[in-house]
Backbone:
């Protein structure tokens, strides 16, 4: 590379030693200029390769959520694309806009118990895409169904029949559901050939609700004051129910939460004669029996004698089948010999629904129903009115009160503290197909233990 100004100066000088010295100096200047230009090209190429590498790396991370392949440029192609920079100043770096937080197309299938829509992505993989609990998301089914501004929670922290995207603890996949309302899969006419993709709508929009409700209970009995508390085991006491006549708890046969054997011992301790298992069917029992941790000997005897009723109840409170199945199960239980016991998996949701019906039928008022329901949140999560009123009120206002209105069809403007729950429980059982005489059988079995009805 020649310096034109230097050449003109050299030509104006006289010949001889001075000229030779000047020529040598001129050659050194030219060499130095060539070296500096080469270094600049090298640095520019290095920056370009760095940009290419980061772009490719970002593409791989993004494609993990998008399920799309990212083309990787070959070294020769990258070299060909490297610009030749003639200016000594580097070109300004361009900043790409942040990629949208979303998934690729995900397969779906129906949950066989609750008829939710299971989405085949784990919580960990979903959050690797950039989502966080408490976000608002948009859900797009390939068939065209769209759901906007859906809360993403670790539980079903929405009022009954409201939509939620849930990463429930110990469940393999995310699911989308109408909480305790319609059966999402059937309500939306879904099919396993359909797919879904999810996009972030607003980060952290529902984080406050997630923080209030997101609790996990310990599975270590040493963390509880009593084994009864560990199992969420207790007698119903609302209204006119006789002492220790009917008990509620978590499962004595499903050891998913490590409580089955402890519950089995409690059934024997309190002399339970009839069990209503709200959550299991015969296939579930066979599965539990086949596991190495099966240790429910007392329940085995009740199963063999026909005093262990399997209901396989879902949580779709608004369906006719829910009222029919629960009503018939409660009648079948109370047609046998007591004391009685009913359960689901954790002894929380379906068990709580059944407790409201039984206690309401026997004359319990609002405060009694609420106290029994909230006892679960005390023993599992330490949520008590005197110790944590903010969270306590949040559960009552967001979960318990709306549950009463949906389960018992109480008008929105009705004062829940003045409702006649005996009448509402009777109406529920009649919607489930029971006669007046069958309803009295249930009530008498729970309030008059000395004369249990229709023993079998």
Residues:
């Amino acid at each position: 590379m020649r310096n034109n100004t230097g050449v003109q100066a050299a030509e104006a000088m006289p010949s001889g030693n001075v000229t030779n010295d000047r020529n040598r100096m001129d050659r050194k200047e030219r060499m130095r200029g060539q070296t500096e230009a080469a270094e600049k090209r090298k640095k520019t190429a290095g920056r370009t390769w760095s940009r290419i590498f980061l772009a490719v790396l970002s593409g791989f991370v993004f494609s993990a959520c998008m399920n799309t392949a990212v083309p990787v440029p070959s070294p020769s192609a990258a070299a060909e694309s490297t610009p030749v920079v003639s200016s000594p100043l580097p070109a300004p770096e361009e900043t790409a806009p942040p990629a949208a937080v979303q998934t690729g197309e995900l397969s779906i299938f129906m949950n066989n118990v609750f008829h939710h829509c299971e989405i085949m992505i784990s919580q960990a993989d979903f959050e690797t895409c950039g989502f966080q609990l408490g976000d608002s998301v948009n859900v797009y089914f390939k068939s065209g169904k769209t759901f906007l501004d859906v809360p993403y929670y670790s539980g079903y922290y929405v009022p009954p029949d409201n939509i939620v995207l849930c990463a429930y603890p110990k469940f393999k996949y995310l699911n989308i559901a109408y909480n305790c309302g319609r059966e999402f899969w059937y309500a939306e006419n879904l099919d396993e050939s359909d797919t879904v993709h999810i996009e972030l709508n607003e980060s952290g929009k529902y984080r406050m609700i997630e923080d209030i409700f997101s609790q996990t209970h310990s599975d270590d009995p040493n963390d509880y004051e009593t084994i009864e508390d560990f199992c969420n085991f207790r007698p119903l006491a609302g209204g006119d129910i006789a002492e220790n006549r009917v008990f509620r708890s978590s499962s004595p046969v499903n050891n998913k939460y490590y409580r089955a054997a402890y519950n089995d011992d409690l059934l024997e301790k309190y002399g339970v004669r009839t069990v209503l298992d709200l959550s299991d069917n015969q296939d579930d029992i066979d599965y539990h029996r086949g596991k190495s941790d099966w240790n429910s000997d007392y329940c085995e005897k009740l199963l063999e004698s026909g005093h262990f009723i399997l209901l396989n109840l879902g949580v779709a409170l608004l369906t006719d089948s829910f009222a029919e199945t629960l009503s018939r199960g409660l009648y079948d239980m109370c047609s046998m010999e007591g004391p009685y016991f009913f359960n689901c998996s954790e002894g929380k949701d379906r068990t709580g629904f059944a407790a409201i019906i039984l206690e309401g039928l026997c004359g319990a008022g609002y405060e009694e129903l609420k106290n029994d329901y909230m006892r679960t949140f005390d023993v599992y999560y330490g949520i008590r009115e005197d110790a944590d009123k903010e969270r306590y009120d949040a559960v009552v206002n967001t979960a318990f009160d709306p549950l009463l209105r949906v389960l018992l069809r109480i008008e929105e403007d009705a004062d829940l503290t003045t409702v006649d729950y005996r009448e509402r429980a009777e109406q529920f059982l009649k919607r489930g197909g029971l006669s007046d005489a069958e309803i009295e059988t249930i009530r008498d079995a729970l309030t008059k233990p000395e004369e249990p009805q229709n023993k079998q």
Summary: The mean pLDDT is 84. Residues 221-447 form a domain with the Protein-Tyrosine Phosphatase; Chain A fold (CATH 3.90.190.10). The longest strand covers residues 146-153. Residues 17-66 form the longest helix (50 residues).
